[in-house]
Design a protein that fits this description.
alpha+beta, 28% strand, single chain, 88 residues, five-stranded antiparallel beta sheet
Length: 88
């Protein structure tokens, strides 16, 4: 498991509150010790937003992996409401 470091967010750090692990070709985002999002076979699966900070973590994770992540509505429309969310 490794810490998610901001590249697109203006924060200097997420202070080890966001981490990424790889498991069976699946990239998993862990925010505050909770699995909140994963990418498998170029598809995004979001389990929940939970807080504004977790949304920041999800946006950063998606952008770093080549997915569009502008705002919560766009993320919901593209990855939750769209069953064919293979948008990478």
């Amino acid at each position: 498991m490794e810490e998610l470091k901001p590249q697109y967010d203006n924060r200097k750090s997420f202070y080890n509150k966001a981490n990424v692990k790889t498991e069976n070709n699946k990239l998993i985002l862990i925010s505050y010790k909770t699995e909140v999002c994963f990418i498998e076979n170029n598809k995004v699966n979001i389990k929940g937003f939970y807080s504004d900070t977790t949304l920041r973590h999800i946006k950063e994770f998606l952008k770093q992996n080549g997915f569009k992540a502008d705002n919560k509505k766009q993320i919901e429309d593209d990855y939750i409401n769209n069953p064919n969310n293979n948008l990478k």
